[in-house]
Amino acid sequence: MRIIELTEEARTNILENLLKRSPNSYGEFEGRVNEIIENVRANRDAAIFDYTKRFDGADINAENILVTEDEIKEAYEKVDEKLLTVIRKALVNIRKYHEKQRQYSWFDSEESGIILGQKVTALEKVGVYVPGGKAVYPSSVLMNIVPAKVAGVKTIVMTTPPGKDGKVNPATLVAAKEAGVDAIYKVGGAQAIAALAFGTESVPKVDKIVGPGNIYVALAKKAVFGFVSIDSIAGPSEIMVLADETANPRFVAADLLSQAEHDEMASAILVTTSRDLAEQVSKEVEGFVAQLSRKEIIQKSLDNYGYILVAESMDEAIATVNEIASEHLELVTNNPFETMTKIRNAGAIFVGEYSSEPLGDYFAGPNHVLPTNGTAKFFSPLSVDDFIKKSSIISYSREALEPIYKDIVQFAECEQLTAHANSIRVRFED
Fold first, then answer.
1. How many domains does the chain have?
2. Domain boundary among 181, 209, 230
3. Annotated catalytic sites, by residue?
4. Tens digits of per-residue pLDDT, 179-237?
5. Is residue 129 a known part of a binding site?
6. What is the CA 172 to chain-centroid distance, rounded?
7. How far is the CA of 99 from the CAs of 9, 370, 385, in angstroms?
8. Among 109, 176, 276, 292, which residue's beta carbon has the most beta carbons within 10 A?
9. Is 368 among the annotated ligand-binding positions?
């Protein structure tokens, strides 16, 4: 990995390079995505069946688009019992963590006759998108369905592209069933997002769409936002490790590569105050890359978006971490909990040398759907909050309104909204 002295110019250049990975930088795909969306809106089932044949090579129609109970039963027979056990263990942790995020309605009343409050309501219907193709991510199935289930969403539907045989990966089906999905449809890509956003004869319209996908899926979610809600427009994965001279270079190197293997556009960055650690990590990375199964992807990721930054001080290193605002951040310093108190911007923070990133991906319980491309400065991980909405409750008696009604009239007249003023004034005409 390239080792760079951390300067203001280096930090600026790296930030600009990382931002090129954002879906917002791929405008040339938007025309194709919008064409797919409009076709699905106009032709509904016919369009999604045509695209599924064209892009996935599968013959899908109204009779087989919905995954059947027999197909799910067949998936259970194909999935390794050990994997099923792990999925169920992970589910316990994920559910337990998200149950602590539940919010409840509240009401405050006063003797004067004022009642104010907030009513919390779960979304009615949510769509979960799950990628297909070469990669299989049952962990993402759990992470997207469980918080919706905990929130109390009435109907959770999932879409995922089928293989050429018209089947869905067994691990994906089993994870969805275990998490509590209500229906699974065999459709992927931008056409699946359009189907969920607007509805077709087979696929129901939902209120919100969540889940990761390729650039076409990301741009489709961006395009339908407003017709439905979405979780985020996710970019390629990224990891940052903040380490000092006490860190184990072999651990750090292994952790950097855990994200680099996702995608050629994934980012892996070490920020350290130790030149010796930087050089040791670089050597360890070379050794690991040579033996890992996805070494071609890893090497391209490191060549394009991999950095080892050497800072003069820990304060400078922390400032850089906060500026880049990584999706995953590992803290491997002498006192990582003290360091953690100074971190403002990160999707998920892994504290200490035995809290490596895959722990969060699969098992610990916190959600692994995280803000990317610097959006951790203002976005949060997927949570139960994403599957609820809130209504304000306002109730005044005549006795509570009378002392302040003239104040409201004055405010309304100041804004020249006489109908507003009249709506209050008529209640006290006598």
1. 3
2. 230
3. 327-328
4. 999 999 999 999 999 999 999 999 999 999 999 888 899 999 999 999 999 998 877 88
5. yes
6. 18
7. 44, 18, 11
8. 176
9. no
